[in-house]
Design goal:
The chain is globular. Helix 4 packs across helix 8. By secondary structure, the protein is mainly β.
């Protein structure tokens, strides 16, 4: 790896963005594909600026008048799965995406649909989508809209008409890759990653020419088979930190969400994911750091070469990804202005790094953490508790695989100096899966779910205002459940967030006081954004419950609501669509069955391993996918044909014929029927 750390002059400015700031809050678009020229009223890239601050200098809507917000317009996406995108607004047009990677272009003043583009993803591809068939948004550059597609394609569309300009396949579609993240455009290249670690793939980041779709470079995040030539010196060095035949399991390290870019340092920052499988004892027996899993990578954007790295969780064994949102900012620490990168990854520690060198400045827990006692600032490594790796004894740990913070974006306000995090408090029982056999196309973790018995506490979430200099909480708003939406902060001294219980709320950025809220009916997981047209400021958010927690059973009891985009402004007078009233579900028709307690227990264990990730823990669905306790007698009678025969493959229900037997399926059926019988 080349070391460019000594080549960069220090930019001593109190800027919140790596882009060059103007007095009016806009940032220079400049030339040659360097920063966009986004005036204060536009939202031209995923996090508003290359630094991904999600801070807007708009202040027409502020702490004094936010209570006057009303609906300007709303738009139905005609989807009923999770909506995670942050809309873009450029030249009066809003661009956003929905489930199944559908792209929408809307008049940002009225919500009128200008065009939509459906990539026609085969619904059977849903079986590879570990965390719902979601999409986190589009990218815009020089009259083109770019979107990553669930089945691994990357498309460029004409921003005016929606016509397809070019399309490339970014993955080997014979392998279980998916693409759900928003692309970024850097120096005339579209940057895109991928997901699928649990299914057994090897992660990488690719850059494509914005005009032609030609591959410019590809940078792998974990090494491949050492019997074959390594793609780079970095991969050869990384291979020394792995053991066993890791490449046979894919390795993981997928870069499925977070990117940021500093044009002054000319560094592209990439977050990488968990190991494949999660359990290091299986993936890399004998240990090792397993570079570059769960890491922040600084890449040379011209060729994808790794300039520096920082690994948040060496030898990752808990699904503690570091793909969570990264923010670049210049902040004063110890009397010195430091150019920093901030991240709150899944493992529960908030990291502040020097973004030029990767040096660790500080790291403190921002949620309850039981797997490690602290991060050693001398070594930069977490100090694990003795039993954390669950090699001999199962253990309940916090955070669990859904993390202290997941993909939901956080934001940074330079006025308050605070980072606003959709924080999560949760536990998970880890245990060794003793009879592990790797099977591509199905969930491979190497972990026996729930092996440690009941978890100590139910999942909860909170909006956390975090001081990144003092590394401590300033205020919080506690919620009853987790999986709340991303955040937006503005110069109007506001923080906006949607919640898992279906509200959209504005808080005072300095104090956390609730200033305004509206009920949207169904759970919100996306992050809001704001823009200005004709002197009028708007705030917009997509609402549609789903994602991994929604699929696995979170948000139980929420009414099922169609996906919708809501836009608000001061004195807005449009009417909110009526949310469907919750329907009291009658007890399902009893189905007689005979099964011993041992068979039901075996079915419960197999269900937890293979079915709960989609149909919910304890066979209780969150409503995104079917609750099997309420399945029709015909469905449960044909469960073998569905689970082994692939009878519903086109609906996204995979066949498990490689890993389950007819006896396994019969035990699962007995367990489901036992849970059905408990419903009164």
């Amino acid at each position: 790896m080349r070391d460019r750390r000594r080549l960069f002059p220090t930019l001593v400015v109190l800027a919140v963005s790596a882009c060059t700031a103007r007095d009016d809050g806009s940032s220079t678009r400049a030339v040659n594909g360097l920063p966009f020229e986004a005036d204060a009223g536009e939202w031209v890239t995923h996090g508003r600026d290359y630094a991904e601050t999600r801070y807007s200098p708009l202040a027409s809507i502020n702490a004094a008048n936010v209570g006057e917000l009303g609906v300007a317009w709303s738009f139905a996406t005609d989807t009923d799965r999770g909506l995670e995108a942050t809309p873009l607004v450029v030249d009066g047009t809003m661009y956003t995406t929905g489930s199944w990677s559908i792209v929408y272009a809307l008049d940002a003043r009225t919500g009128e649909e200008l065009w939509r583009w459906d990539p026609m993803v085969a619904r059977s591809y849903g079986q590879r989508a570990c965390c719902d068939v979601v999409n986190r948004g589009a990218a815009f550059y020089e009259g083109k809209v770019f979107v990553g597609i669930l089945d691994g394609r990357l498309a460029a569309l004409d921003a005016t008409t929606g016509a397809l300009l070019w399309e490339v396949v970014t993955v080997d579609q014979n392998l279980p890759y998916t693409v759900t993240g928003a692309p970024r455009v850097v120096k005339g290249m579209v940057i895109i990653g991928n997901g699928g670690a649990e299914y057994g793939v090897r992660g990488y980041v690719s850059a494509y020419d914005v005009d032609s779709g030609e591959l410019a470079w590809r940078s792998y995040t974990v090494p491949g088979n050492p019997a074959e030539p390594f793609e780079s010196d970095a991969m050869e060095e990384a291979a020394e930190t792995w053991n066993g035949n890791w490449w046979e399991y894919g390795g993981g390290g997928t870069a499925w969400d977070s990117f940021a870019y500093d044009p002054e340092l000319d560094l592209l920052y990439v977050g990488t994911g968990n190991g494949s499988p999660w359990n290091q004892e299986i993936r890399s027996p004998g240990g090792g750091d397993n570079l570059y899993l769960s890491s922040i990578l600084a890449l040379d954007p011209d060729d994808g070469e790794i300039v520096w790295h920082y690994q948040t969780t060496p030898g990752e064994s808990w699904d503690y990804t570091a793909v969570q949102h990264m923010i670049l900012a210049d902040i004063e620490i110890g009397g010195e202005v430091r150019e920093v990168l901030m991240q709150a990854p899944k493992n529960g520690f908030f990291y502040v790094l020097d973004r030029g060198t990767g040096e660790l400045i500080s790291a403190e827990p921002y949620v309850p953490v039981t797997w490690a006692t602290h991060v050693d600032l001398e070594t930069g490594r977490p100090v694990e508790v003795p039993a954390a790796r669950y090699i001999d004894t199962p253990i309940n740990l916090s955070p669990g695989p859904l993390g202290g913070h997941n993909w939901h974006p956080m934001s940074f306000n330079p006025g308050t100096g605070l980072v606003y995090i959709p924080a999560q408090e949760n536990w998970f029982g880890y245990g060794q899966q003793r009879m592990f056999e790797f099977r591509p196309e199905v969930w491979n973790t190497g972990v026996q779910f729930g092996a440690a018995g009941p978890i100590p506490a139910a999942a909860r979430g909170h909006l956390l205002a975090w001081d990144p200099v003092a590394q401590e909480e300033r205020w919080r708003v506690q919620y009853n459940d987790m999986w709340n939406g991303g955040t937006l902060t503005t110069a109007g001294n506001l923080v906006f967030q949607g919640t898992s219980d279906g509200r959209f709320v504005a808080y005072h950025a300095a104090t956390g006081e609730k200033l305004w809220e509206v009920s949207l009916g169904g759970g919100v997981i996306a992050a809001p954004m704001t823009y200005e047209l004709d002197g009028i400021q708007y705030v917009a958010i997509m609402a549609g419950w789903g994602g991994s927690y929604g699929v696995t059973g979170g948000g139980r009891g929420l009414p099922r609501t169609p996906g919708r985009l809501y836009t608000f402004t001061l004195s807005g007078s449009a009417t909110l669509p009526n949310a469907p009233a919750p329907v009291e579900r009658p007890a399902p028709e009893p189905i007689p069955f005979e099964a011993s307690p041992d068979v039901i227990a075996a079915g419960a264990a197999t269900y937890a391993q293979y079915c709960s990730v989609c149909h919910g823990a304890l066979a209780v669905s969150g409503g995104v996918l079917p609750d099997l306790r309420y399945a029709t007698p015909e469905t449960l009678a044909d469960i073998e044909g569905i689970v082994l025969g692939g009878a519903r493959l086109e609906l996204g229900m995979p066949s498990f014929t490689q890993v389950l037997s007819a006896a396994d399926v019969a035990a699962i059926r007995a367990y489901i029927l036992s849970r059905r019988a408990e419903i009164q």
